[in-house]
Amino acid sequence: MTFPFYIAKRYLFSKKSTHAINIISGISAVGVAVATMALVVTLSVFNGFSDLVATFFTSFDPQLKIVPAKGKTMPADAPALDKVRQLTAVEVATNCLEDQALAVYQDKQEMVTVKGVDDNITDLVNIKDILVGDGVFDLHAANLEYGVIGIRLAQTLGTGTKWRDYLHIFAPRHEGQLDMTNPTEGFVEDSLLSPGVVFQVKQAKYDKAHIITSLDFASRIFERQGEISSLELRIKSGSDINSVKKDIQEIVGDQYKVEDRYEQQADTFRIMQIEKVMAYIFLTFILMVACFNIIGSLSMLIIDKKDDVVTLRNLGATDKQITQIFLFEGRMISAAGAIIGIIIGLLLCWLQQQFGIVRLGSGSENFIIDAYPVSVHYSDVLIIFITVMLVGWLAVWYPVRAISKRLTK
Predict the structure, then answer these.
(1) pTM for the whole thing?
(2) Which residues contact 115 (CB under 8 A, 6 or more apart)?
(3) What are the φ and ψ backbone dihedral angles of 262, each rounded to 5 degrees?
(4) What are the residues whose beta carbons fall under 8 Å from the beta carbon of 1, sequence distance 6 or more?
(5) What is the DSSP letter of 135?
(6) Could you tell me the CA-to-CA distances from 268 to 49, 203, 241, 263, 384 in Å, in that order?
(7) Which of 17, 148, 229, 282 could form a disulfide with 212 if both were Cys (CB 3.0 to 4.6 A apart)?
(8) What is the DSSP letter of 73?
(9) Are 189 and 145 within 8 A, CB to CB?
(10) CA distance 330 to 393
(11) Is 262 exposed, middle or buried (0-12, 13-18, 19+ CB in 10 A)?
(12) What is the pLDDT, as a whole number, of residue 397?
């Protein structure tokens, strides 16, 4: 134990001649603890929402997805894609063709995303777990084509879970010019029947605008025979997805991109990450304000211990050691506040996880969950502790150094 640290510890726990110094020191530690607790709880709530959203994607999005690096489609029989399909780590490979179209049902219409898939889609993702209705999941039967639409799209078009009439799909032609005297010639038209079910991912991106149908139907409506927009993969159980992803990327080269579930939803997670970072920055500013209380506490302590400073100098202590005494004092206050704040923050997170104390409001029955989700990432806790210590050190370094120099002259 160094000499400055030993003296600083004695000053921290000893009684001061002025009782207000003890009070201000306590307030400083409490301020740092409250700011630290707020950081732990807030970042954990953001993590909870992020993890919650990630669980929704597992029912619809594939584990890995290969898309063209440029353009919208790629040849379905590309040699690189055939090599991927033959990998031992790949359990299911599904061709998909996805594009925008216009859906018309009776007197209602809506812009939609039509996604044509192979028949093995049920082996790729747990599509049956998100179905609503009395029918069965089916894409075609004989020469009939079925479409499974999102639940919110069904509400918009007024189809219900099973519609009686045809759902008409219009897609613009890729070749030729639009004749304004006969605009219908500029579109490819086809129709879908209902299998008696709709899907509910609980994400507006899908539920509001997606239609799942057969790959043959999508190829006809979009005039993309022999082309796909993505190759979606399911990896065998026990395989390391990151390792398989790296191997696939080496096979397909720069011509294609291999995306995991988080990359497929990069926009959503990027927005959530930005919100989390902004919350971290704002709460750090509050932490800085709390740390300024430490400056007041240390300033009064330095004045209170003026006679001790003279004694220490007479005993051989250098000016640097005297300055370090008060710097250690400020750091210990910051550390005490950080540790207390982290403990209380983790306790509150645990209580929220176990009992859901903070609800989502009086209309929580309309939400997917009843209470705010919480997920503690210990990397965040480490970052918070480092932030508190760094901010506390920076807040007291210059003021303490300046005041100590004045007293040691």
Answers:
(1) 0.74
(2) 96, 97, 98, 210, 211, 212, 213, 218
(3) -70, -35
(4) none
(5) S
(6) 11, 11, 21, 10, 24
(7) 148
(8) -
(9) no
(10) 7
(11) middle
(12) 79
**H-helix or E-strand spanning residue 95:** strand 90-105
Low-confidence ranges of the chain (pLDDT < 50): 364
Q: Which residues pair with 64 in a beta bridge?
A: 233, 260
For residue 278, give the nearest of 48, 43, 36, 45 by alpha carbon: 43
How much is the pLDDT for 21?
65
Q: Which residues pair with 192 in a beta bridge?
A: 167
Distance CA 7, CA 317 (A): 11
* pLDDT at position 38: 95
Q: How far apart are CA 47 and CA 380, in angstroms?
A: 10
**Which SS3 state, helix, strand or coil, does residue 223 take?**
coil
Q: Pick from 288, 400, 395: which is nearest to 8 by CA?
A: 400
Counts of helices then strands in the chain (DSSP H, E)? 13, 15
SS (H, E, C) 174-214: CCCCCCCCCHHHHEEEEEEECCCEEECCCCHHHHCCEEEEE
CA 367-372-373 angle, 5° bins: 105
pLDDT for the residue numbered 145: 94
Q: Residue 180: CB partners within 8 Å, gap ≥ 6? A: none
pLDDT at res. 344 = 97
In Å, the largest CA–CA distance within the chain is 103
Which candidate, 165, 185, 190, places its Cα nearest to that of 175? Answer: 185
Task: Give the pairing of strands 210-214 and 108-117.
Answer: parallel
**Which residues are bridge partners to 169 per DSSP?**
103, 190
pLDDT at 127: 86
Name the β-bridge partners of 115: 98, 212
Query: Checking DSSP bridges between strand 90-105 and strand 167-172, what pairing results, if any?
Result: antiparallel
* Tens digits of residue pLDDT in 251-304: 999 999 999 988 888 888 888 899 999 999 999 999 988 887 787 777 777 777
